[in-house]
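pinging the channel bc i need a second pair of eyes. not urgent but kinda urgent?? the chain im working w is below, pasted from the shared doc
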Amino acid sequence: MKTGWGILGTLAAAMTGVLPLAGCTPYACTAIGWTNSLTVTVEGNPAAVSEVRLCDEKDRCSRPAPTPADPLPLRSVDPTFDPTTATPQPAPESEPYPLFTVTREGDNWSFMMGMNAPPRATISALAADGTVLVSQNVELTWTRVGGSEQCGGPMSTPPIELRGL
């Protein structure tokens, strides 16, 4: 008479311990960030529009995207700085980086929303002097265009038409 587990017994014992762990394997996401996008088309008289602005429910508004020609802010340097006697000074207040940036391409305005996907927004067309030409509240329907449900990924909305100019 044989004693011990044998090959089949050992395999059965191993599978009993391994199979329950298969459902606990964490899912690894490769993307760590993305940009959601939104396009607004100006209907009517787009030549009168100097800027199209998008504001979310928290009154965070877009700003034009920086261009390579935009100079960096200048900072002064104190040549007599002595780190042993200096006292820390609070950093000067500056505007935070815009949550939403916008670029113009003809009659279309493309908004880069970062990883934000607000459900509603107010879109306004502005004249060169800052006068609001038309403003429209919109419900935004976001659709995933990349990534996955588990990890997220870039989303987009159908183009929005801004009318009334």
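so The first helix runs from residue 6 to 22. and The longest strand covers residues 132-139. — does that match what u expected or am i reading it wrong
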